[in-house]
Give the backbone structure.
Amino acid sequence: MSAPRWMTLRSFQWGLWVAPLVLVGVLGFTHRWTSDDGFAYFRVVDQILDGNGPVFNAGQRVETFASPLWVAALTVGDLVTPFELAYVAVALSIAATLLGLSLATAASARLMDEGGALLLPLGLVVIAVLWPTWIWSTGGEELGLVLAWIGASAWILARWASRSDADPNAAVGRLGLVLLGLGPLVRPDLTLPSAVLVLAVVMGTAAPTRRRASMLLTAGALPLGYQIFRMGYYGLITSSWSLGREDTATRPGFGWEYFADFTSTYLLLVPLVAVLLAVYIPFVQRNAEAGRRRRIAALVAIAGSGVLNVVVIIVIVGGDSVHARALLPSMVMMLTPAFVVPVARRHIAAIVAVAVWAVGCGVFMRPGNVPALSLTGAYPGRRLTLADAGFGDAAGWIDGPGLYLADPFEPTGTKLPIKLADPDAVVVASRSIGLTGYSLGTDVDILDLNGIADPFTGHQGLEFRYLPGQEKSAYAPWLVARFAETPDQVLPTDLPDERPFHDPVAPLLYLEQVAWAQATLECGPFERLADAYDAPLTFGGFARNVWRAMSNTSLRFPADPRRAYSEEGCGEASPLERLTMRGPVPETVERFYARVETGPVLPADPESGSVAVAGRCDVTLVATEEDDLPWTPVRAGSFRATVTFDESVTPEPLTAVWALGPFGPDRGVVWLQTDGSGNYRVVQEINWIPQVASPWMPIDPAAPVELAVSADLDENQWVLTVDGAYVAHSPMLSESAAGGVSAAVPQRAAPGHTSSSPLIAHEGRTPDRTCQAVLVANAEPGPVGVPQYGVPRPSAT
């Protein structure tokens, strides 16, 4: 006896549905891996199980993760299973991905059911053949959980929409409302889709206002409860993860590039346009004629949430630092209602177009760094566990308490010669905080140089725009002021020659920034911020954090400590002579200025080209010997300097010659750099960014280097030459404080070297006093009596 026709058809249909799911499961497993963000999740789980709470560093309450529910899932999985957490994460991720896609398929079948017609997988196939689906079904991150929530939410809406055919007053139950409201706890960028889905079922249900209000409260209860916990425990209204990425700061340019990269790599307009024209528009027309408004509402809410999320990611969030990760959930939402479609004439064009596209996409379409036809292997490489990444014995390079700089994505690093305020602490500064942090264990504190996991740097204002999570950089003076036992004794030469530690400024200017950073950290807003994440958590402290969460979250300060002191209401951040007239001087700043005061000051002599500089003032006026009007702003002219190297003295790596433009962020610097091996090169810096202007050249003590900078007002630029040969040019960045186009100020020469420059630095208001806290040596009289790096001051010559 043969099986009934409907049973054979149903089996065939189930086989068609299961095939794409099997493809995702198999290829997700063959591409299994763990990202650095995944390892960061694992470190938080370790902290929880060690009794330190959901934090990244013990004793420092910082919410570094995007998904509280994924942290909970990993914690439970690690607690109840004997396996390594990386394997647990793979199992949970793939299971959640398949569950989400299965529920989305069932939801689509409910919406698209036309009384027994064969339902072919369409949108499901699109998702199944995408390379990002295979990659992000693992990775140690929450993408699998995100797909599970999308599938569950779509199923709830589809069930609600289909029940209205028999019961127009049917509503979503409490459990369904709770699930729909979980979006913000799954991932922050699901907040808007979650709100849209909840509003769709609330507004689409015929119920009294009180009942609708009750439905909204039910859906929002868990997110609201967690938000109160976040404000009281962490002292912020958003996670440190979102804060460090500045997710609310619009960056549409980067967002559009991210979207274009995703859609063009996989030619996604083909399936999207096919589904819109051949599936969604006919669906809306047919259901509108039949009066099935809930089905239309369900489709618009699910697919529309995906569209809205794409807009938010493009315009506000600005994409992501990793290919396709941020947009894959939106793609799933947009296609979920069409995961399966009935075999009908109106759908034939879409089915054929997607079938042809799917073959090309699954076989050939890959990102630029992945070869076509690749169906195995992970991204990047097969890195699942710490041992796979080469971090099996990562702690071997740690040599007792101290401050270390980890090599990015390598199990190695360097110990810095800086004594910490906490003599027993081990602090490792890193840009790969997941691998480094998880491998070193919970007893080691991780200093995130990108600010995501650092409760202080995350509040630093944006100095430039780039990819989310990579726009902030811990600035050396702040780090020294926060962690060093004696910040004013930490020399620039103690810091590694790497961003963010290396700052091409004069040593005394660097020490001045450290002093201002110390003063700023003692200021009210910064003390309150530190209290929120560092102070012991009591009931009163929890309530205080809730009260201050808004102001803590809104705190943004510039990288320049002196500006931060002024802009955050700490006081008048002007030089010492100004501060004494306007109010009390911060003790750290007063000590700094007292240390750089000199006795007699050498006269500025334009005939010999000697320059004497000490102290600091806001307005620096310069003139050259060619000028007829000394002590006035320089508007044009050629500025020359002769630099002689003395190899008998160990050369410093940095010898600044001129600053082009007023002091502050808008200025350029021309400086000489020596390598300690008898070579030098000329480097120019534009807007804080060093740019090499010449190749390395051998030092000849008998042949001084002739540098010249010419102000070209026609082109609004500086032109730099070395020994008469063109090297580089840079723009005049801003008006000087004194009204000139730009100014050239002599900076310093290293001890043992001499620099003869026909430049005169003078403070215009008081001719008997010079200003500028940097050392300039000259050929005739010898070094000026200004201390270098805080060493005892020599007598003035």
Remarks:
- The longest helix spans residues 85-112.
